Backbone:
C-alpha cells in the first residue's frame, strides 16, 4: 500500500526510527496473527480482581523487544497527523479552539511537554507556546505534585497527546496524571479533569470486568462532558471502563489507503475489544439483539499496529515510535468530539442517531463469539467497530 506524506516528515521519521529502544521488561513481544508484525505492550497487564488498569498502547518491535530498525519500520509508513485528518475527513478550519480535551493516565511522563512540541512541529501543527498555551499537566488533585515516572505509561501519555493533537490541532490539552493505575485513582483523575473544565476526557486504558466494577461508574458519568474509552486490545471480550454505559467505547480498525472515493479503507482490527458486559445495564439507545446488557463498542478508529501511527516519546529515549492499540483510537475520537464543539449539549447516544455521518466498517473479525455481529464487522452496527469510524464531525 502506498501512502502520501510530507517529504520533510518522511525524512524526520526515517532518521529517528532507526534509534534502538529499550522497552520495559514487564511484557514480552507478541506477534500479530494477521500480519506477522511483532508488538510489545507498553504496560503490564493487571491481575484479575485487582481493580487496576493497564494502558492499551502497543509498540511495533523487533523480535528481541527493541523498537523496529529504520529498515523494518519503513514499510509500515506510520501515519502522520495529515493522514489521520485525511482518512477521517476532519475539517481544516480553526475548530476546537475553545475546547479542552483532558487525557487521563497513570504515573508521570517527565518529558510529555517537550515530546509533544517535537510531534507538533514535525506535523506542522501550531506550537503550544506563550501565544497559544494549549498544554497543561497536573496531578490527580490538580496540582504539580506529579506521581512517580513509569516508562510504559509515559509512552501511553505521549501517544494520547499526539493523537488528540492530530485530530484537533487547535484544542487545549489537559494531561491529568493519576497516582497509579488503580480505578480509585484513575477515577479521581477523571473527576479532576472535569472539575478543571475539560469538555472531553480521553481514557486509553482498561481492566477485566469483575464484581464491584459498578462502584467506579460514577467517575465516568459527567453529563455535558464526552468521555471516550479504549475498548481493549485482546480481541473479543469486554473491559472496564469501556463497558460503562455513560462513556463512548471506541473500538479499533485496520486503516489503509485505497482507490475508493474516500481514498482510504478500513476493516475491523483483530485485537479490538467487543462483546456483552456481564454486569452493566444496556443503555436505551442500544438496540442490538444478542446482548441483554451493555454492548461494546460504540464507534471506532485506527488501532491495528500493522497500520500504525507515528508517536514521539523520549522518556526512555526512544524518540519516534510506530504504535497501535485502541489507545490510538480513543484520543482520536476525543479530538473529533472537541472539533464538533457540541460536547456540553450532546450525550453518548448522539452517534446512534447520526450514524449516517460515520464510515460504516465492513469486514474483519476479532475472534469467535457465536453471534456474527458481536465479533465480525458487518453492515450497520457491530461489536469491534460499533457504528463505524468518524466521517468528519457530523456524528459527534
Residues:
Amino acid at each position: 500500500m502506498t501512502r502520501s506524506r510530507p517529504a520533510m516528515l518522511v525524512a524526520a521519521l526515517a532518521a529517528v526510527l532507526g534509534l534502538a529502544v529499550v522497552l520495559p521488561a514487564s511484557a514480552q513481544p507478541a506477534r500479530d496473527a494477521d500480519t506477522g508484525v511483532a508488538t510489545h505492550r507498553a504496560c503490564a497487564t493487571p491481575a484479575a480482581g485487582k481493580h487496576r488498569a493497564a494502558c492499551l498502547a502497543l509498540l511495533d518491535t523487533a523480535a528481541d523487544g527493541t523498537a523496529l530498525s529504520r529498515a523494518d519500520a519503513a514499510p509500515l509508513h506510520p501515519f502522520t497527523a495529515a493522514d489521520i485528518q485525511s482518512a477521517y475527513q476532519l475539517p481544516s478550519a480553526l475548530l476546537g479552539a475553545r475546547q479542552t480535551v483532558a487525557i487521563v493516565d497513570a504515573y508521570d511522563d517527565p518529558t510529555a511537554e517537550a515530546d509533544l512540541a517535537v510531534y507538533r512541529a514535525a506535523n506542522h501543527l501550531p506550537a503550544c507556546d506563550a501565544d497559544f498555551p494549549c498544554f497543561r499537566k497536573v496531578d490527580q488533585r490538580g496540582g504539580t505534585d506529579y506521581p512517580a515516572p513509569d516508562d510504559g505509561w509515559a509512552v501511553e501519555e505521549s501517544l494520547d497527546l499526539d493523537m488528540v493533537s492530530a485530530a484537533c490541532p487547535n484544542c487545549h490539552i489537559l494531561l491529568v496524571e493519576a497516582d497509579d493505575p488503580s480505578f480509585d485513582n484513575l477515577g479521581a483523575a477523571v473527576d479532576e479533569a472535569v472539575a478543571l473544565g475539560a469538555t472531553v476526557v480521553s481514557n486509553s486504558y482498561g481492566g477485566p470486568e469483575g464484581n464491584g466494577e459498578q462502584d467506579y461508574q460514577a467517575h465516568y458519568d459527567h453529563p455535558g462532558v464526552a468521555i471516550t474509552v479504549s475498548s481493549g486490545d485482546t480481541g473479543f471480550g469486554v473491559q472496564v471502563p469501556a463497558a460503562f454505559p455513560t462513556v463512548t467505547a471506541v473500538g479499533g480498525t485496520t486503516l489503509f489507503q485505497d482507490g475508493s472515493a474516500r481514498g482510504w479503507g478500513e476493516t475491523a482490527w483483530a485485537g479490538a475489544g467487543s462483546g456483552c458486559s456481564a454486569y452493566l445495564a444496556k443503555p436505551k439507545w442500544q438496540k442490538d439483539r444478542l446482548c441483554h446488557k451493555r454492548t461494546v463498542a460504540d464507534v471506532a478508529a485506527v488501532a491495528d499496529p500493522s497500520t500504525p501511527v507515528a508517536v514521539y516519546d523520549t522518556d526512555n529515549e526512544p524518540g519516534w515510535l510506530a504504535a497501535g492499540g485502541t489507545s490510538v483510537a480513543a484520543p482520536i475520537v476525543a479530538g473529533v468530539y472537541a472539533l464538533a464543539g457540541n460536547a456540553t449539549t450532546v450525550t453518548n447516544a448522539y452517534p446512534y442517531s447520526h450514524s449516517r455521518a460515520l464510515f460504516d466498517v465492513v469486514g474483519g473479525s476479532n475472534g469467535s463469539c457465536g453471534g456474527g455481529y458481536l465479533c465480525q464487522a458487518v453492515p450497520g452496527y457491530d461489536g469491534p467497530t460499533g457504528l463505524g469510524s468518524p466521517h468528519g464531525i457530523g456524528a459527534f
Q: What stands out?
A: The chain has one domain: 7-390. The radius of gyration is 19 Å.
